Protein: VPLPA-CTERM sorting domain-containing protein
Organism: Paracoccus acridae
Amino acid sequence: MKITVISLLAAGLAIGIGGQANAATLARFDISLRYEGTTYTDLSVTDYGTAGPADPAGWRDHYFDTLLAEESALALPTLRPGLAIGDMVAFRATLAVPEDPGDMIAPFDNGGHALRCNLAGVGCTDGVTATYADGDMLFGEFRSLTVDATPGGALTYLFNNDYLSSESLGWGTMTFFNRMAEFTVLSVNQPAPVPLPMSAGLLGLGIGALAMTRRRRKPA
């Protein structure tokens, strides 16, 4: 696995949070991927059919333990319109990783963030709440990215709306437990080092961390 890691501690930069001085690290990733599809779990779909939303008597319900959206006749949202199974894409990111990613400062928040992040043409810089040196990321409680950055490994991007997500589809509605865009790692490329200015923008780097788990719980 080739990952460029630039220590800000060596540059003499320490960030104080809660009265403690902590160093941060920049981890850079450039990973070639093959898209394997968007998978839903515990999916419930209500199709209005020709009756429309005003006539429940004409609605049709569908239930799936697991469903690959691209192989379904239902027009389910995927990671990005136009993205097809087998497409060659990339994950490129520069992550500010806390010195001790296990020292959380809030639930699902270790103070880390992304300076840049793009997955298969979809921006993922905003909303990051926790970062790790291996490329894993949290975006609050309901979104995450995990990666095994070795050829043949997997990258999974979980993008839920809530604990039990629901969405209106125009032609119907759906609820689901998990929605995951899945990729196979093809190669890991090491980008050229980029000099980092000692600017005030870097002073926003946070510290701490949270071990990510998402335990399946059935709603009451």
In short: The chain has no helices and 15 strands. Residues 4-191 form one domain.
